Input
Amino acid sequence: MKLKNMSSILLALCLALVVSACGQNDPAPSSNPSSPANESGSNDKITLKMWYWNGAISDSTIEAAKTKFPNIDLQAEKLPSGGDFLTKLTTTLSGGGGGPDIVTMDSWISTMLTYNDKFVNMYDYGARDIQSQYLDWKWKIGATEDDSYLIGLPIDVAPVVLYYRADLFKEAGVASTPEEIKAQVKTIDDYLALLKQVKEKTGSQSGTLVDLFRSIMGQSSENYFDLEGNYIGDKEHVKAAWDASVKAYQEGVTFPYTSDSEKNAAMNNGKISSFTGASWAVGDVISGAPDTSGKWNIAYPPGGVGNQGGSAMGILKSTKYPKEAFEVVKFLVSPENLLAGYKEFGNYPSTPEIYDKPEMVNESEFFGGQNLSSVFGEAAKDVQNAHKDSRDELVINALSAALGSVDAQKKDPEQTWIEAQKQIKRQLER
Amino acid sequence: MGGLFKEIYKSRALYLFISPFYILFLVFSVFPIFFSMYLSVHKWDGIGEMTSVGLNNFMYMFKDPVFWQALVNNVAIWLLANAPMLVCALVIAFIINLSIVRFKGFFRIAFFLPNITAMVAVVIIFQSMFGNEYGLVNYVLESIGLDRIAWLNTSTGSRVVIAAMIAWRYLGYNAIIYLSGLQRIPKDLYEAAELDGATLAQTFAKITIPMLRPIILFTVMMSTIGGFQIFTEPQVLAGNKMPYPGTETIVLYMFREGFVYQNYGYAAAVSWVLFIIIGLISVLNWKVFNKSDD
Amino acid sequence: MTGKKIFVHTFLLIGVIFSIFPFYWLVVMSTNETSAIFSFPPRLTFGSYFLTNYNNVMENINFYRALLNTVMIAVVSTTLQLFFNSLTGFTFSKFKFPGSKALFYIMMATMMIPGQMLLVPQFIIIKELDWLGSYKALIIPGMATAFGIFWIRQYALAIHDELLEAATIDGSSKFGLYWRVALPILRPALAFLGITTFMGVWEDYLWPLIVLTDTSKFTLMLTLQQLKSVHTGDYAMVMTGTLLATLPLILFFLVVSRQFIAGIMDGAVKS
Output
């Protein structure tokens, strides 16, 4: 019986080897990934396949593109957003293409720069001509460091501003109009002092210390790696952000919510009276804290402006029609069409020329009738751009987890900092 | 050997019966398995070139405290969730199957419902129940004069929450498995026991358990395999953020290393170590629960 | 006797309350506005927004098209799996042949491989076969599963050997043994396998996301994701879509679950 078992295992293994060998020897036809459907030339129309997600590009804009380019059959595929979209794109690229012509990319576009050879260089098709329309810092996110290769045209930006309860700030006797805050609360230290007074007078707080840390880091002109790829996450600018967050926590001005449900509950019950958030957080506050309608304002953020999100649109190298695809993308991200996106989803456009247009005015009752657009516009122009690295996520996760444990598990902040740095360096050395 | 071939020829119909699985396996799994073995001794970011790194991935893993912590978390959650759940599921199935119980159809669907309920709804509910400041559970604890518990801030607390979530989702599922297994037990056995004046507990211990042994083995095996691949619950509960302390499981760790940090080679190495761990524990289960089988 | 009856029913009812509550909440959320979902303490009563939410879902996605796609895939997959898994599982439980043990253990081992790492190479195979965007990629690789085979095998172990011997003497082929003797006894096991398979296909997300290329071919779970945007969206609408996508599963369960209490021939299984 033993012998029989052995022989059958051997048989199975041989078969396995044969099949896997076949699999590996198969030549991968990377040069011609388009499906037969694309090649059917029954009429003169060319087919362009585009991937996007709900809330990236307005459906009315896509319809307009179809009208504008009658010779192009634009197949817009609305895919799940977020990590799922990235997983599908990465798998498709790893598997050697066979995907779309045009892709929408979120803030992870900077990691795609490593594989810029998978994308069409938009500078080759006239991107330089429209460059001046867009915010410079945003444009650079889609370009290589030497600015010779552009993989995506900007869609929207997400400047981070200060969201606050005007009524509670007033009650606490601190700066409470957007103008006062911009003039008087300039640095993080100013903000911490303000938070302390608000806490004493009203009992309300800001977000968690991790929120604060991420927000301060977002305002920095340096991230976690320098241009040569050296780790600088243990340097002064990071430690200063860490220390400020710890100080805020120790002074009791941070609210330790554990989940988004709890954050919403805290906002709705007046326990959180301010936090820094990107332009898209407007929707979060409105749906999360309905009972506080009319009491919120936004202001130019203390400590400088960061950016959290905002997408771009690029073209894959595997396309057969790069020129036509570029024209379509150029149209989709043109200033007028970005305006439509702002009206529809609140995606703040990356084209400053339209910021002052009357159509951009966005007065929200939830925010006491304030014109949100003017604050965003002002902030968007001042965004600090720091060098991004594909390993940033690893460092941010490690530091956030460590900082979170200072509050949740009452760990010693200095010791935690040292341990977190050790762990990050070990992970990076691999 | 001639005898062997004769026997194989005699059983040709049987080979045909079992062939679909193995053909599919050869076509769809063998290449991926070898690919992932190859990957485990390489460095690969998912899109660019691969570089050979020998056994470095494994060496790093064995020295990485985060990996060991994930293993500990995983075993803790697995034990917390599965042992009580399987026992309860068996009891519930036994009770629903009793002849005195009415509305069996209603109870079946009611207990199975958690397994169908979409995760988005489940997450909102669990977050609202176990929040530190605004959780319903803490609200109840306080109103009866007890202290709050920092559910999601401590390893123990968040493991209990995750285990509760898993147990809640799979209790009815396993009860349904047992319920269908109970159908294999001839009714006359129960009738005979009743004539002898056996209590419910005696019937359960003397008839139900022994008769269900292969089915219990099935649930234990599946809970082990599933338990070491826990992924969804801790991930969705934490939302986009890092998992709560003490709840990062091995597959979460692997997923983050692979799909988030683009260390596909390392992730493949982790997956093979996980495979070996699951294999060892499964063999153990098989030996313990399979005495009277075959 | 009545005391026992009351005790047993009370016990079950307490369990039912815990089990049903989140589903009840899902229904509540689908009848309220988004703001009610996030409020604290949460609203536990029905609102009047169900129709609004329903219309929003229908406006934003092609729900019924996706439903049709999913039902089709699920029915085909489930039928194929029930057949192949029960045939293989029965064979493993009642026959010994050269290599049967080794083959069985190989199959068991395949369940223990973490599937996530096989995603990219499996995508490559599907691409090489030119099955990208086709339902073949969803249905064929999963036609026979280790889970299903193992389950049927465990269940079929209890089938009386005398029953099979008697049928063989009557001239039944091996397939006849499966079709005429085993299948009727396996009905409760098939019911469970049918439900899990159907559910598995219904809720599968990652694989369809990667291999389907055409939104008109999307399954329900993929289509529902189209309702979500990157940041805040209309949560009440998402919940309503989720609820609508769950209802067919419940219906399927109700229809199939009668089989759990199927009468089995006396003497068909070992005592």
Observations:
- Chain C touches chain B through 94 residues (CB under 8 Å).
